[in-house]
Specification:
The chain is an alpha/beta fold. Helices cover 48% and strands 16% of the residues. It has 2 domains: 78 residues, Winged helix-like DNA-binding domain superfamily/Winged helix DNA-binding domain (Arc Repressor Mutant, subunit A, Orthogonal Bundle), CATH 1.10.10; 240 residues, Vaccinia Virus protein VP39 (Rossmann fold, 3-Layer(aba) Sandwich), CATH 3.40.50. Helix 16 links the parallel strand 7 and strand 8. The longest helix has 19 residues.
């Protein structure tokens, strides 16, 4: 190549750090899954340990141990002081099975379904076909109805990431005037548990399919709330809603199409008494629906796993207002989570 040809090569206007960040960005996810599977976090909960002690306990060599520990330290899940590794607060809160907000079910599900959750092929197929890939079925929730064990595992998965926000949103809204919370598609009952723990007068009813209600009963008993929370085996699409003055949906609207979301909104409006309230709990997009990254990635997960999508605050607020709900509000509650709520006149 002569000098004149070299002058025709355009230099990049930016460096390539962003591409490296994107390509290597899933290292944290994979490392967290491996560390969880190796039971590194309960090991460090027992006492701080040196690199050599971690290697001995996990029966791995120094090189892979350093690689895993280095990523986890950078992610601020663990810390190292005077050559001893220990847990950071976030790991104590979410990565130990002794915690009520343990994320183990979420991580176990990701490991068991890595072919879907982390797969290039699954994402590409979902993009090309606009159909969910979980269980290789275009109707994943119908699969849950037919296979109780899958429903059970999925319910534990949802419970894992629900308990933290379930303990937060009841702190930011006044529920003193309401008597019965109907947790529609309530899964493990995490949000009913959070609401009744905060508001001692409140009764709750968790509505879901049979195998899911059986799991909910286990968690309700675990928290000693059998006298406050009941379960109701029901089809939210076909069956009338039981009497309640407060309807709650967590991670439900994002599972389904916009048309189905409108159907549920209308059904709640017609079922609630005057003065009744609806609460929708979701991760919300900013306007104009390009971030934050976690919500955009969650939206991509919905594309791969289920049938739905993430919404913006504007979209859900409009859906409530168009149905007839008034005093519509959006309240950030916990991390990326928010509630959108309105009252029936």
């Amino acid at each position: 190549m002569d000098v004149s040809s070299c002058t025709e090569i355009r230099k990049p206007r930016t460096d390539d750090k962003r591409l490296w960040d994107i390509i290597l960005g899933n290292a944290g996810q994979r490392t967290l899954m491996v560390a969880h599977d190796l039971k590194l976090f309960p090991l460090l909960a027992e006492k701080p340990r040196t690199l050599a002690e971690v290697c001995e306990a996990l029966e791995i060599e120094c090189r892979p141990a350093q690689a895993i520990l280095g990523v986890l330290v950078y992610l601020e899940l663990i810390q190292v002081k005077q050559d001893y590794y220990s847990l950071c607060a976030i790991a104590e809160d979410y990565l130990l099975d002794s915690s009520s907000t343990y994320w183990g079910g979420q991580l176990d599900f990701m490991i068991a379904n890595e072919y879907v959750v982390c797969s290039y092929e699954s994402l590409k197929k979902a993009v090309l076909t606009n159909s969910p890939q979980l269980y290789k079925s275009d109707k994943p929730f119908e699969t849950h109805e037919e296979q109780a064990e899958l429903a059970r595992v999925f319910t534990y998965t949802m419970h894992a990431h629900s308990m933290g926000p379930a303990l937060a949103w009841p702190e930011i809204i006044d529920l003193s005037e309401y008597k019965i919370l109907l947790d529609i598609g309530g899964g493990s009952g995490a949000h009913a548990i959070g609401a009744t723990c905060k508001w001692s007068h409140l009764q709750a009813l968790v509505l879901d399919m049979l195998p899911v209600c059986e799991v909910a009963q286990e968690f309700i008993k675990r928290f000693g709330l059998q006298s406050r929370i009941q379960t109701c085996v029901s089809d939210m699409w076909q069956d009338p809603f039981p009497a309640a003055d407060l309807h709650f949906y967590a991670d439900i609207y994002h599972d389904w199409s916009v048309e189905q979301g409108r159907f549920l909104t209308q059904k709640s409006f017609e079922s609630l008494p005057s003065g009744g309230r609806i609460i929708i709990h979701e991760m919300l997009y900013d306007e104009p629906k390009v971030g934050p990254l976690a919500v955009a990635a969650y939206n991509l997960t919905m594309l791969v796993l289920i049938e739905g999508q993430q919404y913006s605050a504007k979209e859900l607020s409009a859906m409530l207002a168009e149905t007839g709900f008034t005093d519509v509000e959006v309240k950030p509650s916990f991390g990326y989570w928010s509630i959108v709520t309105g009252c029936k006149p």
